[in-house]
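Researcher: I'd like a candidate sequence for this fold, 110 residues long. If you have to choose between options at a position, lean toward the conservative one.
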C-alpha cells in the first residue's frame, strides 16, 4: 500500500520550528522533509517512511528542548523578580542603582 505524502505538513512544521522553537532541529527537519519527498516521488516508499519518521522525532526533540528552555528562562526571571520585590518590601532595604553599587565596590577594592 502506498503511504500518503505529507510533505507540506512536515515542511511547514519544520519551518515553524526553525523560526519559533529550536533552529537546529528545524533545519534538520527541513532537510529530512525534502529527502522524504524525493524518496516518495521516486517511488522509494520505505525511504519515505524512514525519513518521515525521522522528521517526527526531530520535531519532537526540538519542541521538548524549546519547552525546557522556556521553563528555565521563566524560572530564572521569576526568581530575580521575586528577589527584587522581596528586597523592596523588606524593612530597611534600599535598592541601590547598579552604577552606585559598582562605584562603591571599586572604591572598596582600592
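Model: Candidate sequence:
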Amino acid at each position: 500500500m502506498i503511504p500518503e505524502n505529507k510533505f507540506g505538513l512536515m515542511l511547514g512544521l519544520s519551518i515553524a520550528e526553525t523560526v519559533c522553537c529550536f533552529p537546529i532541529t528545524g533545519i534538520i527537519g527541513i532537510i529530512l522533509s525534502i529527502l522524504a519527498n524525493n524518496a516518495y516521488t521516486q517511488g522509494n516508499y520505505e525511504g519515505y517512511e524512514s525519513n518521515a519518521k525521522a522528521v517526527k522525532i526531530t520535531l519532537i526533540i526540538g519542541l521538548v528542548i524549546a519547552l525546557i528552555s522556556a521553563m528555565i528562562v521563566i524560572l530564572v526571571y521569576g526568581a530575580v523578580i521575586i528577589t527584587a520585590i522581596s528586597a523592596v518590601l523588606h524593612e530597611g532595604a534600599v535598592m541601590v542603582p547598579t552604577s552606585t553599587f559598582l562605584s562603591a565596590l571599586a572604591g572598596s577594592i582600592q
